[in-house]
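User: Need the bound-state model for cytidine-5'-monophosphate:
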Amino acid sequence: MVVAVDGPVGSGKSSICKLVAKELGFVYLDSGAMYRASAYILQHLNLHIDNLSSALEKTVFTFSDNGGRLSVFIDGKRVDVTNRIRTPEISEITSSLVAKNSAVREILVAKQQEVARMSETEGVSLIADGRDMGTKVFPDAQCKIYLDASPEVRAQRRLKDYQRQGLNITFEQVLTDLVSRDHGDTTRVDSPLVVANGAVVLDTSDMTLEESIQTMVDIITSK
Ligand code: C5P
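Assistant: Bound-state model below.
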């Protein structure tokens, strides 16, 4: 089974999907981490955006569960980019530049579909989150969910993430950044964020993490 989860910045996709995957024994694919790691490569190697897709063809992304936290590596296990891809600067480069590039998207979509093929071969179900999971990457997914929450709630959640990382940033800055990234993600030409056909819309504004997880587990098990 493939569960495709989409939603805007800070809708809780990663936190919820990671724990739902654990509870149901599914593989978890964080497609946003691939876009972020690509932005890191762009910045770190000082590449022009037109040269990023060829660099990505040779890049191997690896995810591993590090005591409930998702670690992200590039080039097999050599470079741990877990923290480096979660900064406001990388978020901005990701949505304003990397995610808009169709050649980059094509390569990352192929890598994401490959993860699903490997899971299928191993007989394990997959839950994948991002912006185009239900529309582009897994249009035939048996279960599609669109996670949402109000901009204020999402900004508050993101602020807590940044504070945990020790970053000095205000609520207003986070909210402005979030609204601008939402705009970029919903208006880009290639694979904009929309509610996929047949997706269940789940608004988590007034839900705790536990309630959101339980609701999602119920939706998935009902399919
Ligand atoms: O989900 P996350 O916030 O980590 O994603 C970072 C950015 O990567 C998003 O704002 C979006 O621009 C891009 N992205 C995308 N398609 C996906 C996942 C993420 O364009 N499937």
